[in-house]
Amino acid sequence: MTRSVTVLTNPAAGSGHAPWASAAAVTRLRERGVTVTEIEGSSVEEALGLARKAVAEGTDALVAAGGDGLVNIAWQALAQTGTPLGIIPGGTGNDHARLFHIPVDDPVKAADIIASGEVAAVDLARAGERWFGTVLSSGFDALVTDRANQMRWPKGPMRYNLAMIVELAQLKPIPYRIVLDDRTIELDATMVSVGNGTSYGGGMLITPHAKLDDGLLDVTVVKSGGRFRLVRLFPTVYKGTHVDLDEVETYRTRKLRLETGTPVTSYADGEFVGRLPIDIEAVPGAGRVIAGAPLN
């Protein structure tokens, strides 16, 4: 059983849903006899500093009460320390929570999972110096995120839908060079996604066969094609069946390098990582998580 936790909250996550979820979970944890310390950063840098301080001081677990962006901050403090991650889902996508079998709409049940203290070791991925738990995106989906981040209207998921329409109108092939463990691939592609976990964007199973304990990354390459093909592909991503389409190739590797002939950004766990080229590797057992059920 978990005896003490530090709860890190993002007050802006999920359009303000995170503070409510955090409060409900903290109340439940205290009812279960867990000692709770609450921290909240006003910036990414402050949140990360507070998280690292809590881990250094020996908290039993660091709990991220928010979305995947906050979990990503937590991973920077937790990777390779042995201190486990707990999650109180309060974001928009909550892909980490789904990955670790944590209910996304019931903070009390999420708190019960944390109190039970059932810890599993998981692989993490590292892109440059930044850790991530789910998926790194580059190409079309990263361009959509770029554009959505520049838009002030509309709010919520509709902003991403509108950004996607704009990027579809400007769709161009991207010349990629992908260096895997056993081969180098050069092709024009629409997007390349690298998965430690299976999903991003609130349940889009872009790397559906990724495993958390195999020491490998799953790579999904969507080859260059027209707008109609891309529009046809996106509904299948929610089922993970896009990997069976002719325009999609998949690979598995421990390390890879992504290069492009044109400027392309990348995002991991929905957070900006940097422009390509970028080196990515799987790090076996680098993370520990309090999960709601056996993983994989």
UniProtKB/TrEMBL annotation:
Keywords: ATP-binding, Kinase, Lipid biosynthesis, Lipid metabolism, Magnesium, Metal-binding, Nucleotide-binding, Phospholipid biosynthesis, Phospholipid metabolism, Transferase. The keyword Hydrolase does not apply. It holds the Pfam family YegS_C. InterPro entries: ATP-NAD_kinase_N, Diacylglycerol/lipid_kinase, Diacylglycerol_kinase_cat_dom, Lipid_Phosphate_FormReg, NAD/diacylglycerol_kinase_sf, YegS/DAGK_C. Its EC number is 2.7.1.107. Its cofactor is Mg(2+). One of its GO terms (molecular function) is ATP-dependent diacylglycerol kinase activity. It comes from the Bacteria. Residues 1-130 form the DAGKc domain. The keyword Transcription regulation does not apply. It is an enzyme of class 2 (transferase). Belongs to the diacylglycerol/lipid kinase family. This is Diacylglycerol kinase.
